[in-house]
Amino acid sequence: MLSLDADLGGLSLHDLAARDFPVLSHAAGGVFDDERLNMVLRRLNETERQVVFAYAESEGTTWTEAAIVAGADEPEMFGERVRRKAKRLAKEQARRAAAQRDAISPTLHGGEEQP
């Protein structure tokens, strides 16, 4: 199990999951109980996922080192690319989740129902 605060170089597991989800349970094969996190991870290829997990599990103290652990070619460039991609995917997932919440119940987020 990893802490939500596990530093991923400007990104954390907390950033990858919804802000209201208190704990992520890591299961076999890199699958998490939170489907939103799985959706982000599915958009990464196998090597990119290995880099994210290597970084999160402190097998690499930098994204470059995590890419080396994952066996990536050109680890400095690849590690930075994975960091940027994971951050972009997490922001997109958060945006979609917020839009879905707002569409389902606008009054819970400060809006008023129209007659």
Q: Can I get a quick summary?
A:
The protein has 115 residues and is mainly alpha-helical. 52% of the residues lie in helices and 3% in strands. Residues 18-28 have low confidence and may be disordered.
Description:
By secondary structure, this protein is mainly alpha-helical. The protein is 52% helix and 3% strand. The chain has helices at residues 13-16, 35-42, 46-56, 63-69, 75-104; strands at 26-27, 31-32. It has a two-stranded antiparallel sheet with strand order 1-2. Strand 1 and strand 2 (31-32) form a beta hairpin. Helix 4 (63-69) packs across helix 5. The longest helix has 30 residues, at 75-104. The radius of gyration is 16 Å and the shape is elongated. The termini are far apart. Mean pLDDT is 74; it is low at 18-28.
The main β sheet shows up as: 2 strands, antiparallel
Question: What's the helix-strand series?
Answer: HEEHHHH
CA-based gyration radius:
16 Å
β-sheet strand percentage: under 5%
Discrete helix count: 5
User: What would the average pLDDT be, to the nearest integer?
Assistant: 74
List how many beta strands DSSP finds: 2
- Extract low-pLDDT stretches: 18-28
For the record, give the distance between the C-alpha atoms at the N and C termini, rounded to a whole number. Answer: 48 Å
Kindly report the spatial arrangement of strands forming the biggest sheet.
Answer: 1-2
**Alpha-beta classification:** mainly alpha
